[in-house]
Amino acid sequence: MQSQPDSAYSLLSTINTDTLNAESLAHWYLLKAELSHRAANVPLPSSTDMEMTFNLYRKYKKKEKALKSEFYLGMAYAAEGETNKAMDTYTHVYQKAEENNDYQLMGYVCSYTADLYSINEFASESLKKRKEAALLFKKAQNQRSYVCALRDICRNYAYMDSLSKALTYLQKADSIGKTLNDKNVYASLLNAYGNIYAMKHKYEKAESYFHQALAISQDSISDYWALIDLYFQMQSYNKAEALLNKIPQHSAQSLLLINKTKYLLCKQQENYADALKHLEEYSLLKDSFFISSNESKILEIENRYKHQKLMTENAELRLRQTGYLLACAVCLIVVLAMLWAYFGYRKRTEKKLLLQQADIRDTRNRLLELSIEMERKNALLKHSEEEEKELERMREEMETLTARYRTLRENMLESSPAYKKLHQLAKQRKPQNTRTLISEELWEQIKQQAQKIYPDLRRYVIDCCPDLSESEWAYCCLYMFGFDTNDEASLLGINPSSVRTKTLRLRTRLNIDLPAQMSLYEYITMQI
C-alpha cells in the first residue's frame, strides 16, 4: 500500500462489497480511505460509509482502528463541504491522539485543519496550525512530513504577502529536503521557489526553478501550469505555446484547461480565428465534462441506493427472525407450563402431603427460571426496538437518496443540447404560428435523450399501452422534458388548450389513474 497505492486500489476494487459482512465491509472502507490519503486518484469513501465504519469499530472497542476511521471521517466531511462537522471531528481525534502521544496523527490533524482555515480565508489561524503541525512532525521524526509542513508555512506567508518570511522557511525546508531522496517533495520545493520569485517579479530565477522542478518531478502537471502562467506574466507567448503543447493530455480536465489556455493565448496574440476555435472546443469539452460528472454522480447514487436497499432487506430479515424466535420461545414456555401443571396435578392426587412440599419447592425454582427467561426476552425485545429505529433511519435515507437521484436526472436533462435547443425555440413565441418548430432531426434527439435519462421509459409506456403510435411515443418523450403548457404549445404550433387535450389523451392511452395533487409528469418519473 505504501509503495504502490494505485496497484493496491486496483486490487481492492475487484472485491464485491455486496458479499461482505459488516466487519469486512468496514475494513474495506478503511483500506480505501488509507489509499486515498496516499494517492490523489483514489476517491475518499463518503461520510455515510465512514460513519458506519467508525461506529462499528467503536462498538467492538477496536481503539486504533476507530481513531483512524474517525480521522478519515473528518476528511470525508471536509470533502463534502461539511466544515463544522469536519472541525468537530478533527478536534476529537486530536484529543485522542494527544492522550496516546501519537504526534504523527496530531500533525496530520493540524495540517488538514489548516486547510479548512485556508478555504475559509482565515490566514492567521491557518498559519498557526501549520506551525504546530511542523513541530509535531519533528517530534514524530517524520522528516518528509516536516519538510512538507515547512513548505506549506512558506505558502501561507506568501499568501499573506510576507515573501521574506516565506523564503526563510522555504530555505529551511530546502536544506532538509535535499537529504530525503524524494523527488516529488523536492520538486514541490522548487515549484515554491519559482512561485515566490515570480511574485517578486524576478522572472528569470522563477523560470529556472520551474524548469528544475519539471526535470525531476514524477507528477509535473502543476509545474507545467505554473511555468505557463509565468510566461503569460512575462508576455512570452511563444514559450507558453511551446510548453502548452508538451502537457500530457491524459484526462478530460487537462484537455479543458489546455483549450482554455490556448484560447487566452491566441487572444493575446490577436489570432481571433484560432481563439474562437479553441473557445468553441473549450465550451464543448466543458459541457461534456459536466454531463459526464452528472452521470458519474448518478451512478454513484444508484450504487449507494442498491447497497442501502440490501442493508435494509438484511435488517428486515433479522427483525423477522428475532420475532420468530421470540414466538417459539413463548410457545415453548406455554407448552412446558401446561405439561408441568398436568404432571403436578397427577402427583398431587397420589401423594398429597409429601408432594405438596415438593411441588412448592419446584414451583419456586420454576418461577425463578421463568423470571430469568422473561428478563432475557425483554432484552431481546429491546434489541428489536433498536433495530426498528435503525430500519426507519435507513428508510428515511433511501427517500433522501431517491429525491436526490430524481433531481440529478432533471439537471442532466436540462444540461443536454436537445433541451437547450427546445428552450431556445420555445422562447421565440411566434404569433399566429401553426407549424411545429421541431425538426425531424430534433425529434430524434428528443427521443434519444429521453431514453438516455429515463432508460425504463420505453418499457413502461409499452407495458401500459402496447399499441402506442410512434407520434404518441414522440410526444411522450417531449412531455418528459418538463416544459409548461405554453412552451409546448409554442413548440408544437398549437393552442395551449390543444396541449392539455394531448396530455389528457396520453394519460388515457397509458391507462393512468392519477392520485390527488399529482401531475402526470410526477407520476411517470416515480414509476421509472
From TrEMBL:
Keywords: Coiled coil, Membrane, TPR repeat, Transmembrane, Transmembrane helix
Coiled coil: 360-411
Gene3D superfamilies cross-referenced by the UniProt entry: Tetratricopeptide repeat domain
Pfam family, one: TPR_19
UniProt cross-references to InterPro entries, sorted A to Z: TPR-like_helical_dom_sf, TPR_rpt
Transmembrane segments: 324-345
TPR repeats: 187-220
Protein name as catalogued: Tetratricopeptide TPR_2 repeat-containing protein
Originating species: Phocaeicola salanitronis (strain DSM 18170 / JCM 13657 / CCUG 60908 / BL78) (Bacteroides salanitronis)
